[in-house]
Amino acid sequence: MFHFRIDKKWGNHMDWWIFIVSYLCGSIPFALIIGKTFYRIDIREHGSGNLGATNAFATLGPKAGIAVFLGDFLKGFLPVIACVYYGLEVSPLLVGMVAVAGHCFPIFAGFRGGKAVATSAGVLLAYNPLMLFVAVVVFFGMIWMTKYVVFGSLTSCLAMVIYSFVDFNQLNLIVFSLLFFVMIYLHRSNIRNLYHKTEPTIYEGKRVV
């Protein structure tokens, strides 16, 4: 019989401000800002339409894609680091997941954001680098085998669920299981395209600049 543990406090009411900061940080739409500022393009009207690094790579090119990835990555990394640095009595993982929620449903962009990948990676680097290593290996391994980013995104998140189960960590298991189902929802158009064989591979992105 498994005995799960929760090794982080759920929170002190005096420290809950970090969740608001985390959500607002996660809501910064770097893909939208970079697209409009430097390319005069609303990235939501091109490619997959999402405000994430993958769409930025595909529609704006590698420079913009890298810039968006770094911005989205830091949105997850910084709130978790702040939580640890200031010794807040809240779970760093939950703080990070609020940033991910902000990225996916940003208040500054009509609640239409990205698909959680880069921001989740930032959270993992600050929270558990070993988990990030496993996720990165699975992510790029699946892309290498299938040539589809969607497979890498979903299987890397599923790997976190399995990792949490093997590690007997109840909080992690709950959080990453919920994240996995959210990612399935966010990638529903990609899954539909895969079914109809219309999903572009990593070699088929259509740049607009």
Automatic annotation (TrEMBL):
It holds the Pfam family G3P_acyltransf. Keywords: Acyltransferase, Cell membrane, Lipid biosynthesis, Lipid metabolism, Membrane, Phospholipid biosynthesis, Phospholipid metabolism, Transferase, Transmembrane, Transmembrane helix. It is found in: Cell membrane. SMART domains: G3P_acyltransf. Its EC number is 2.3.1.275. Pathway: Lipid metabolism; phospholipid metabolism. One of its GO terms (molecular function) is acyl-phosphate glycerol-3-phosphate acyltransferase activity. It is a multi-pass membrane protein. The keyword Transferase applies. HAMAP family: PlsY. Probably interacts with PlsX. PANTHER family: GLYCEROL-3-PHOSPHATE ACYLTRANSFERASE-RELATED (PTHR30309:SF0), INNER MEMBRANE PROTEIN YGIH (PTHR30309). Catalyzes the transfer of an acyl group from acyl-phosphate (acyl-PO(4)) to glycerol-3-phosphate (G3P) to form lysophosphatidic acid (LPA). This enzyme utilizes acyl-phosphate as fatty acyl donor, but not acyl-CoA or acyl-ACP. This is Glycerol-3-phosphate acyltransferase.
